[in-house]
Amino acid sequence: MDRKNFIEKFAEALEIEEMADLQEATEFRSLEEWDSLAYLNIIAMLDEEYDIQIENAAFKQLRTLGDIIGYIENNQ
Amino acid sequence: MNFNGVGVTALAAAVPHTIIDNYKYTEYFPEDQVKEVVDKVGIYQRRFADEKTCSSDLCFAAAEKLIADNDINREEIDLLVFISQTPDYRMPATSVLLQHRLGLPNSTIAFDVNLGCSAFIYGLSIVFSMMQNKGLRKALLLDGETRSKVYSPKDRRSAFLFGDGGVAALIERDDKFGESFFSLNSDGSRGDLIKINGGGYRNPSSIETLKEKVVDEFGNIRSDEQGYMNGGDVFNFVIREIPKDIKKMLAYSGKDLQDFDFYVLHQANNFINSYLAKKLKLDLSKIPTTIAKYGNTSSVSVPLTIVDQLQGKMDGERLLLLSAFGVGMTWATAVVPFVDCKISNIVEV
After folding, report:
1. Domain boundaries of chain B, sorted by first residue
2. Under CATH, domain B1-349 is a member of which superfamily?
3. Which of B193, B236, B279 is opposite residue A43, by nearest beta carbon?
4. Measured between beta carbons, which residues in chain B are less than 8 angstroms from residue A50?
5. With an 8 Å Cβ cutoff, is B35 touching chain A?
6. ipTM of this predicted structure
7. What pLDDT is stored for residue A37 in this prediction?
8. What is chain A's percent helix, strand, coil content, to nearest 5?
9. Chain A contacts of B271, Cβ < 8 Å?
10. What is the value of pTM for the model shown?
11. Domain count, chain A
């Protein structure tokens, strides 16, 4: 999958303007923009863009943007 | 499940008179945070019952309105089902108290159903099922909630969502009603997504369960006897299960989405509902909504939305798709034909 495109979609969902701050190694829960509303946006984005519905327990295991990308790649 | 020749002949609803402006509900959070949450969930007003008003009081007012407007003979009401998770007492069942208060005969069958947001559809199926028995003449399905009393105003994840209301539905057998279809589901493995942990018999009420605590890294505060909701996980569950169940129901009933006059969805919040509508490609003009003015009234939201939004639009035959989901988790979808359903004006209590 297009990793750069995923990071763009992630940034869009969280309304993060400075893309340079986001890397695959970024721990998304540490982002200032991350909260329970951001989580809703990410769930909607994963469903809409990648047709991925992720189990809650599985999502809790993911720490970095790279982890989410890995999950998508393994489950598509 | 499917039924024939039984349906809802009349509906009434009651809401508390106190209107909460959601932007001004609490000063506990900064204004910009409140605005962000309120705009996201699309809930601008809610109705809050006062200290003395219970779900049963709202249902009583709705039932009296229903009985008066439709000239119902109380002696003919053979069944009363009361749906709520905010009953008057732990015992006796509120339905039995309502039987007496409404002046119904002692021969009336009365019991409570303890389920959350999907419960009106569960309740309809229970009453439709019992009404297959020709020994029963008329049934009252009462559904009331005072969820405003359940959640902490200091927990941002649930503080801005819930409101109060009560409805009364008259259910009768009549050949004019065609076939209705129900899909009822449960998944107790997700019992911790929405929960009040303390105050029942597993974790009895104590000084400890009543104590307010900071519960997460965002500084939300509640006690164990107040409800919590893990909104993200609920949303995740909903987008996985609800479209699937609606599609299953369409196949089971042999209907297409275009066959319905209205899709009445549980008024969870506007974010979830808009997403579901988009995902299922539903015609937005067929989706009545009350989320902005009443908030999430749990199981009451589906019938309250019918009463509030479809009055004057239910003459003749109308086919409704009902869909609801919530605490349990339980979720339900129904295809229900309405024929000349009489809808009363909403009562304020």
Report:
1. 1-349
2. Thiolase/Chalcone synthase (3.40.47.10)
3. B236
4. none
5. no
6. 0.80
7. 82
8. 65, 5, 30
9. 40
10. 0.93
11. 1
